[in-house]
Amino acid sequence: TLEELSSHFSKAGVIDLDPETLRPKIKLYCYKETKSGGDSAADTERELKGDASICYARPESVDLAIQVLDESMLRCTSQVPLAVTKAKFEQKGNLDKAKKKESSNI
Predict the structure, then answer these.
(1) Is 12 helix (H, G, I), strand (E, B) or coil?
(2) What is the per-residue pLDDT for 92?
(3) 88: phi > 0 → left, psi -120 to 50 → alpha, else beta; which?
(4) What is the mean pLDDT of each run of 10 residues along the chain (106 residues)?
(5) DSSP readout, 19-47?
């Protein structure tokens, strides 16, 4: 849960807060929406992929989290250790040609 991740990853530093919600900047990644059997929107559930991103308030906390929390266990009942790495952001898909042309003329 978000609370478990916040508690665990706070060991390496202060987690940044979302200015609108004042909640920790933690994102749990989900698969595309899947139906749980019913036809209504209330029956739609999102299955977690098992990975997340955590934003720290200070950049040094990222390296500390990798050193201290990589291969740690989130819960005492966990059977698989966490893999803690620095996030890599990559663009998915192609840029719209009009936007690409516009940005190259600046």
Answers:
(1) helix
(2) 76
(3) beta
(4) 94 96 95 61 71 95 96 92 90 63 47
(5) TTT-SB-EEEEEPSPEE-S-SSGGGEE--
To the nearest 10°, report the CA torsion of 31, 33, 34, 39. Answer: 170
The residue among 41, 54, 48 whose CA lies nearest residue 7 is: 54
Beta strands in the chain (DSSP E): 26-30, 34-35, 44-45, 48-54
Q: Is the entire prediction scored with pTM above 0.90?
A: no
Rounded Cα–Cα distance for residues 15 and 26 (Å) = 8
Residue with the two structure tokens 């987690």 = 15
pLDDT the model gives residue 71: 95
